[in-house]
């Protein structure tokens, strides 16, 4: 019964105005405008008027400097979001979704970055169905995914560098290739001759012995 008195019968002379801290009236099937008497509760810290059928504009709660939580969602409120909302020093939550509000969100509210929801209205710059808390959540998820992708890239690059390094070490373990010439040829090694050595040994291909299935045969003198 105290709450109904608060809504409809409060006057500045009632002492309850100076001691009432919370107005919990969610889902009470209330109709009409938000009572101006609530704006005179100087000690008010929380307003819960969501899930009713309240109409009209949001009244001036600028004198309620202790306000921390405002829930006015799921009503039929009209008009613009009051600019004083951005100046409430202790405001921590603001939910006004699913009304018929219009205009723009006060710049000061956006800079506060507090949990809020303005969807389901005709407010400019607001995507219906998305609250600032959801946007913050998706931003955090995106940052986490970016960090994971960066770590995976670093791991792959490190593995690739290690593979190249191991390949170089393996090549270092292989015996060096040796070019066998007339001067260092041995009986147990494959003979590889330089062109100038072949020309010298055949005397510029002067002494032809004959020809066969493997081509022309020349006389070679190895010193």
UniProtKB/TrEMBL annotation:
The chain crosses the membrane at residues 137-157. It comes from Kalanchoe fedtschenkoi (Lavender scallops). The keyword Kinase does not apply. Keywords: Leucine-rich repeat, Membrane, Repeat, Transmembrane, Transmembrane helix. InterPro entries: Leu-rich_rpt_4, LRR_dom_sf. It comes from the Eukaryota. This is Uncharacterized protein. PANTHER family: OS07G0107800 PROTEIN-RELATED, REPEAT FAMILY PROTEIN, PUTATIVE, EXPRESSED-RELATED.
């Amino acid at each position: 019964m105290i709450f109904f008195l608060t809504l409809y019968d409060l006057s500045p002379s009632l002492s309850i105005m100076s001691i009432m801290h919370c107005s919990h009236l969610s889902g009470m099937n209330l109709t009409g405008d938000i009572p101006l008497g609530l704006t005179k509760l100087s000690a008010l810290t929380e307003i819960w008027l969501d899930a009713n059928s309240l109409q009209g504009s949001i009244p001036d709660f600028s004198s309620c400097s202790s306000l921390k939580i405002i829930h006015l969602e799921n009503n039929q409120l009209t008009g613009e979001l009051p600019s004083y909302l951005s100046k409430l020093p202790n405001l921590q939550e603001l939910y006004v979704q699913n009304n018929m509000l219009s205009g723009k969100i006060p710049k000061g509210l956006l800079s506060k970055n507090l949990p809020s929801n303005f969807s389901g209205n005709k407010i400019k710059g607001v995507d219906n169905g998305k609250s600032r808390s959801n946007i913050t959540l998706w931003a955090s998820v995106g940052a986490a995914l970016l960090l994971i992708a960066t770590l995976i890239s670093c791991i792959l690059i490190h593995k690739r560098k290690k593979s190249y390094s191991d390949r170089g070490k393996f090549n270092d373990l292989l015996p060096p290739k040796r070019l066998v010439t007339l001067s260092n040829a041995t009986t147990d090694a494959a003979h590889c001759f330089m062109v100038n050595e072949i020309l010298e040994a055949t005397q510029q291909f002067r002494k032809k012995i004959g020809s066969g299935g493997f081509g022309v045969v020349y006389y070679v003198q190895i010193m």
